[in-house]
Amino acid sequence: MTASASGPKYRRIAADLAERIRSGQYQGGSVLPSQRRLSEEYAVTLMTMRQALHVLETDGLIAQQAGRGTFVLPMPLSHHLQSLRSLADELSAQGVALQTDVLGRQDRKLPKDVSRRVGAVPGARGLRLERLRTVQGRALVHQVSWVPEPWGPLIRECDFTVEPLYAALERVCGLAVARAQETLTAQGLSERLAAQLDLPVGRPVLVMERTTYDERDRAFVADTAVILDQRVRVVTERRPAQVTNQWQLT
């Protein structure tokens, strides 16, 4: 047992099992060993083991189903909105298997709203990169990123299924994120995107627009991310001198 030796035995067992779940030893969706087997492993009575499992269930780490066993629940995911890392980087740092499918990449004239956001001259061109992010087989985010010239063409052939956009821009172009401006709005899913993803038109979604700047205050990415998974929520924690917002996938 790796948990602290202080406190009631059932809480020490619960802490140890929680650590094994968070470390990935027991994956979300898997079944824990039987209560009898666990009680033998920890050398405690069945009553003590049931108390430990009750703590884990209260903490949202497991679900006990009569006649089926004890199932490990998927770990909650979060993305700190204050962080300058991308969503992919944030979830990868938590050990989450985030799959990225590239739906399109083209050199195109920047739309008017994108030109305005990045401060480009009329008629400027850039790379339009369209991706779909999935977590555990469920569509999480549809994302369109515009990278204006001269940087867009330089990264067009990068493998964005394995390399995050910002990592590619730093590696190829030497661009580092210094700050970003973000807006988050509630909208209905557009007809075009609903047809593309086979989802209901008008389905409630969160839409995040982010414009990212380098250390010279040049806007080099304009993102529009449609958050598709309805388990996602934005949680705000307020303190006297600080407000923290984060996405949570429950």
Describe the overall structure:
The structure is a single chain. This protein is an alpha+beta fold. It has 2 domains: 9-72, Orthogonal Bundle (Arc Repressor Mutant, subunit A); 77-249, Chorismate lyase-like (Chorismate lyase). It is built from 8 helices and 11 strands. The strands form 3 sheets. Strands 4-5-6-9-8-7 form a 6-stranded antiparallel beta sheet. Strands 3-11-10 form a 3-stranded antiparallel beta sheet. It is elongated, with a radius of gyration of 23 Å. Residues 78-82 have low confidence and may be disordered.
Keywords:
Arc Repressor Mutant, subunit A, Chorismate lyase, 2 domains, six-stranded antiparallel β-sheet, three-stranded antiparallel β-sheet, 8 helices
Strand and helix map with partners:
Layout: H1 9-22, H2 35-42, H3 46-58, E1 62-65, E2 69-72, E3 77-80, H4 87-93, E4 98-109, H5 112-118, E5 125-135, E6 138-148, H6 151-155, H7 165-173, E7 179-188, H8 191-197, E8 204-213, E9 219-227, E10 232-239, E11 242-249
Helix pairs in contact: 1-3, 2-3
